[in-house]
Amino acid sequence: MAVFATWNAFNDIFNVKRSGLFVRAGWDLPWAQQLTPREQLLKTLYETTTRVEDDDAFDSFTQQDLLDYLGTHSPRVLFVGYGGTDDWAHEGKYDLVLQAAHQDDQFISELWNTMQSVPAYHDKVTFIVTTDHGRGSGLEQWKNHDKDIDGAENIWIGVIGPDTPPLGEMANVPRVTQSQIAATIAALLGQDYRAADPRAAPPLPVARGWTGSSIPPAK
Ligand SMILES: [Zn+2]
């Protein structure tokens, strides 16, 4: 598994010291001794670019670091955390939120096409695209998110992959929650997360064969 994220908190979220996972997050990345010219350029940009947020690097930098990695590695599970839209929203710059969202769309598309071009991944990869929180709305509250801001609890989850029927935007389905993503990842890899931890939420109904009528009951 590999983790690429702009927010340096992912070092703690993935508990690097205990898990030993390969994590590259934030501005201060663990660079190798020997770097290719491209890696050296990227390192220089990481070190010399003026930061908007001290704990959140730019999506464009993380994307290039990730593409480098995928040129020589084939992780079975990949986590990518883009932070640009959140940064610009906290800055109150709505035009740049839209620009960052559009750019992140391009990054996800680029990542999808890059992986589809590799035989080991072709038609075998599922992307689960989501957000860790919503935001408020109205003239001021869209800038922030916390437990006291109405609407910040609402998120969306998009799934695309060979086992997932293309059902489009789904409405009138029972409530699904972020807590179901872990078991969903496990299920798509042929594992039963709830067998290991019965307290875990059930997987999302995104596997092959699901037609919209057999959502597992929420518990
Ligand atoms: Zn935020």
Description:
This protein has 219 residues and is α/β, with parallel strands linked by helices. The protein has a domain at 2-125. It is built from 9 helices and 5 strands; from the N terminus they run E-H-H-E-H-H-E-H-H-E-H-E-H-H. It has helices at 10-13, 16-19, 37-48, 59-70, 84-90, 94-116, 138-141, 181-188, 193-196, and strands at 2-5, 22-25, 78-81, 127-130, 157-160. The strands form 2 sheets. It has a 3-stranded parallel beta sheet, with helices on one face. The protein has a two-stranded antiparallel ribbon with strand order 4-5. Helix 3 runs antiparallel to helix 4. The radius of gyration is 19 Å and the shape is globular. Bound molecules: zinc ion. The site of zinc ion has 3 residues, from helix 5. The site of zinc ion (ZN) has 3 residues, from helix 5.
Widest β-sheet, arrangement of strands: 2-1-3
| Spatial separation of the terminal alpha carbons | 29 Å
Shape: globular
* Total E-strand runs: 5
Q: Give the helix proportion (percent range).
A: 25-40%
Query: What's the multimeric state?
Result: single chain
- Attached small molecules: zinc ion
Count of DSSP H/I helices: 9
The profile of the biggest β sheet is: 3 strands, parallel
**Rg estimate, integer Å:** 19 Å
Regions with pLDDT < 50 over 5+ consecutive residues? 211-219
SSE ordering: EHHEHHEHHEHEHH
Instruction: Kindly report the average pLDDT value.
Output: 92
Strand fraction = 5-15%
How would you classify the helix and strand content by structural class? Answer: alpha/beta
